[in-house]
Design brief:
alpha/beta, single chain, 220 residues, 10 helices
């Protein structure tokens, strides 16, 4: 059972998402909060698997709450799915750097909502093509690598580096498997080793890292 906490200052959003998720056989909403500060308290108390986190809230916004929730987080930390009203939210880049696993539009259908929760609970990222383009555009605007830690790339094998590059271009595991003519499970194994060697938590962090060290560049 996937345990979920919903953090949003709009009662209708919390109620609506709660009803839709509780109708799923494998998902249970265990709590809710009206702002980031209360959200942090509820997460500490309830230890959910996934947190649906609104971006804009009073007292403490979703970005700051996500940063605090995931700063130096251990393996048992929940996955954070940011809730936003439009695809090209200004906070996309910062939210991914803070450790969010993806984005969900508030007008998502019941199916999209449940799928999104399952995807991030399984440790994958939820980045729509629009979000990935936005992220790449942000790196283009910032210009050049941001981080000097490129030396860590030397720990990767040639195939692992190749997998990281394809992940950063927004390809799914299935698409990478097709491109490299290997089994999807092999891609998952390679990517798991990439995360371990680079000390990264998940796919969004890997995408950010690949651009920041210049492994891939906007327009590649």
């Amino acid at each position: 059972m996937i345990r979920v906490v919903i953090v949003d200052d709009q009662g209708m959003v919390r109620a609506g998402f709660g009803v839709l998720l509780d109708a799923q056989p494998d998902i249970e909403v265990v709590g809710e909060a009206v702002d980031g500060a209360e959200g942090l308290r509820r997460v500490a108390e309830l230890r959910p698997d996934v947190v649906l986190m609104d971006v804009r809230m009073p007292v403490m916004d979703g970005l700051e709450a996500t940063r605090r929730l995931l700063a130096g987080a251990a393996a048992g930390a929940p996955k954070v799915l940011m809730l936003t009203t439009f695809d090209l939210d200004d906070y996309v880049y910062e939210a991914l750097r803070a450790g969010a696993s993806g984005f969900l539009l508030k007008d998502a259908s019941a199916g999209e909502l449940a799928d999104a929760v399952r995807i991030v609970a399984a440790g994958d990222a939820l980045l729509s093509p629009g979000i990935t383009k936005r992220l790449i555009g942000e790196f283009a605007r910032l210009g050049g690598p941001r981080a000097p830690a490129r030396a860590r790339l030397d720990a990767l094998t040639e195939r692992e580096t190749e997998v990281l590059g394809l992940v950063a271009r927004g390809l799914s595991n299935g698409e990478i498997a097709e491109a490299l003519v290997v089994a999807e499970q092999t891609v998952k194994t390679h990517f798991g080793r990439v995360l371990m060697k680079l000390g990264l938590r998940d796919r969004p962090q890997a995408i950010v890292y690949a651009y920041e060290v210049g492994l891939v560049r906007p327009g590649d």
